[in-house]
Amino acid sequence: MNCGSSALKNSKPLGLVTAVSRTPVCSPAYRALTGGLAAPADLLGCTLLHEDRMLADWAQWLARAGVERSHRARQGPAYSHGSMAVEAAIRGEGVALGRSSLVSDDLAAGRLVAPFPDVRLQAERGYDLVYRVGAGNDPKIAVLRAWLAQEIRLFLETRFKADKHP
Predict the structure, then answer these.
(1) pTM score > 0.90 for this model?
(2) Can you list the alpha helix ranges (DSSP code H) found in 56-138?
């Protein structure tokens, strides 16, 4: 998909294909180094890894987790892409707010753990399937939409179970 072209000007969203959430993730070694991260407030003693221009940020996550407002929520290295923050977390450099669709394989493989998987922020952007105006009744679109929905259901059922067991 080319977001900057006129192709999207003549398209219509089919609806949100999948919602994306963010939750803290770190390497198992980093979690051990911190003493285990027993409570969300423990994150204030960690190196928080940030993604530039991310609206769902650490201050919001900490507030949702019931942690008192702190200047620490704005401190720490910032990366231009979420994947870079996640890679830093895998290397044991701190804790990133991982995008669910980006970290699921690393959680399943044990490269990352989610110390507080039940506290999630809705990400500012998800993924939509779009089609050109007038193509909504195309059988190919219907088949693609059904296949994507099935694949996403399977993905969510198998992958996100892994992050419930840090």
Answers:
(1) no
(2) 58-64, 82-90, 100-109
Length of the chain as a residue count: 166
3-state DSSP assignment of residue 21: strand
Which residues are CB-contacts of 47 (< 8 A; sequence separation ≥ 6)?
76, 77, 93, 94, 95
Report how far apart the first and last C-alpha atoms of the chain are (Å, whole number).
Answer: 35
pLDDT tens digits for 122-142?
A: 776 666 677 777 777 788 888
Cα distance between residue 97 and residue 57, in whole Å: 7
CB 17 within 8 A of CB 152: yes
CB 26 within 8 Å of CB 98: no
Would you state the structure tokens that stand for residue 105, as one six-digit string? 């394989």
Beta-ladder partners of 12: 131
Is residue 58 helix, strand or coil? helix
Do residues 46 and 62 touch, judged by C-beta distance below 8 A? Answer: no
| 153 touches 18 (CB < 8 A) | no
